[in-house]
């Protein structure tokens, strides 16, 4: 707590003070992360359910903090959003991911996560155009993942951006599907190429679970709407076979591969096959 003037005010409990200190420290470190080369992009394979082959990768950011080790994105992305760093960091990830994808066979797609602040930014479409132009990646190999929170904001602006992206030939996926409030209505109002079924639904798909009928419904809905469905967080052979039988288009999860640095990804005879 600060003491100033003749009166002493305690705005914060001592433990709040510690939290604030830690937060300020994290913010200061995060501002240096990109210039200090502490950020990295990992790639997790996405499998085509019928071909049982890798058809793409999702780019997932990593931060190697100099003293604290790996800090998960769920911890620092929200901070980057708050302090206005996300647009810079997001542009960097986009560029890295596009660059990396040009080294893979042309039937392999790359998915990049967009935070709501990036999506709101006037510069998003131009940033995507620039990343494609600078790397020479074909637009139809790039997929952008957005979450429902983006759609909650200004739906007219959102719709304009989504149409502009699709006009470029870029694909757009609705991430974490099912975790929001009105996912189903969004499918009707916005043009998506892909629905990513949140891993919380995949985790518990046992026969008597209420999650199984939801997963079945979303896969059937995707088929009816002509939208690709991807199941996230597939960890077991049992889940894999069940989702394959239900007709889910693509599968992603630790069962097929964890996120890894690009240098660890092995491509056999020009194709990335299941390990
Ligand atoms: P997400 O987009 O839903 O990404 C999927 C997360 O689930 C990743 O966590 C991934 O490592 C993890 N995952 C994949 N398969 C499995 C599995 O079988 N089991 C379990 N338990 N987890 C699995 P990660 O890499 O920690 O990323 C967390 C979140 O951080 C992402 O969730 C995304 O929202 C955000 N994020 C990551 N990279 C970026 C980025 O470059 N930009 C933005 N804006 N957000 C990012
Ligand atoms: Ca994602
Ligand atoms: Ca997700
Ligand atoms: Ca998520």
Automatic annotation (TrEMBL):
Top-level taxon of origin: Bacteria
UniProt domain EAL: residue ranges: 23-273
Coiled coil: none
Name this polypeptide is given: EAL domain-containing protein
């Amino acid at each position: 707590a600060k003491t100033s003037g003749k009166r002493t005010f305690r705005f914060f409990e001592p433990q709040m003070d510690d939290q604030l200190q830690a937060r300020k420290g994290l913010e200061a470190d995060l501002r240096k992360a990109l210039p200090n080369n502490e950020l990295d992009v990992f790639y997790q394979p996405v499998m085509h359910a019928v071909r049982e082959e890798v058809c793409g990768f999702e780019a997932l950011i990593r931060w190697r903090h100099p003293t604290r080790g790996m800090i998960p994105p769920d911890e620092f992305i929200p901070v980057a959003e708050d302090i206005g760093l996300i647009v810079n960091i997001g542009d960097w990830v986009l560029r890295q991911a596009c660059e990396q994808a040009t080294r893979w066979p042309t039937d392999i797609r790359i998915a990049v996560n967009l935070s709501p602040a990036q999506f709101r930014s006037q510069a998003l479409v131009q940033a995507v155009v620039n990343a494609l132009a600078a790397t020479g990646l074909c637009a139809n190999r790039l997929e952008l993942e957005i979450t429902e929170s983006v759609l909650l904001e200004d739906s007219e602006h959102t719709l304009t951006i989504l149409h502009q992206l699709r006009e470029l030939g870029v694909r757009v996926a609705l991430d974490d599907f099912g975790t929001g409030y009105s996912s189903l209505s969004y499918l009707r109002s916005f043009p998506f190429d892909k629905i990513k079924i949140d891993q919380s639904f995949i985790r518990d798909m046992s026969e008597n679970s209420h999650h199984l009928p939801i997963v079945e419904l979303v896969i059937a809905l995707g088929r009816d709407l002509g939208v690709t469905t991807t199941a996230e967080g597939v960890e077991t052979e049992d889940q894999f076979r069940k989702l394959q039988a239900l007709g889910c288009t693509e599968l992603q999860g630790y069962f097929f591969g964890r996120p890894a640095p690009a240098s660890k990804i092995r491509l056999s005879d020009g194709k990335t096959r299941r390990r």
